[in-house]
Amino acid sequence: MTFDETAVRALAQAPTRMDLWVDFVQQQSIRTVVEVGVYRGAFAQRMLDDCPGIERYYLVDPWRHLDDWNKPANRKDAAFERFHAETLERTAAHADRRVVLRGKTLEVVDRIPDASLDLAYVDGDHTLRGVTVDLVSLYPKIREGGFLAGDDFCRTIFQHDRTFEPTLVFPFAVYFAEAVGARIYALPHRQFLMQKVTGGEHAFVDLAGGYRARTLGDQLARRTEPATAPAPTLLSRIAGRARRPRG
Known about the structure:
Blueprint: H1 5-11, H2 17-27, E1 32-36, H3 42-50, E2 56-61, H4 77-90, E3 98-102, H5 105-108, E4 117-122, H6 128-138, E5 142-150, H7 169-180, E6 183-187, E7 191-195, E8 203-206, H8 216-222, H9 234-243
Parallel strand pairs: 1-2, 1-4, 2-3, 4-5, 6-8
Antiparallel strand pairs: 5-7, 6-7
Protein name: Class I SAM-dependent methyltransferase
Keywords: Methyltransferase, Transferase
GO molecular function, one term: methyltransferase activity
């Protein structure tokens, strides 16, 4: 498949995340896809509804509570059972094209043949551990010239409050692209895209704007701390009394 960078730049005008990927799948004649992190199946439904050229669509999700996943989307098992059923219902019209792989990435990835995917779309565990596992284990499954893409490519690692693990899709995906010699694009709607090309040259192309803090040091330095008034000192109390208007 050919990769027209001008066309990728045109994708940056897409009004929504789903519109962006529908346009891309149609543009690149994508036939085999894996989506990691299906949740309730809305993205899978849209891809299958609007992209009849897709011949096989793998849906990878554990649909269960994970004790070692400290993110807001981690729900109780009962909720995930409902989400699984909802996904099956949403994609029922395409049962002949979908392949449901219920499990974490490392539990099911061997069921996908090596070098078979045109597109791997990652929207699962965005912790450092999770994005590392997903990108490293999925890359061999992508064919030469195929694509690796994903969601929640946030400009800051602090996507949620401090009670949750940071989101490390950015900058980890940039460093991963460097390791494999891939050109990686930051797209609007917090998306990223890279192509698997042997002997390629790494570059980071920011088509969305604002991806400046690529090191963890920069990210931590830019972290906005909650405003906390310092404890008053004796000198500040004296100065405060001196500024009060006399009655």
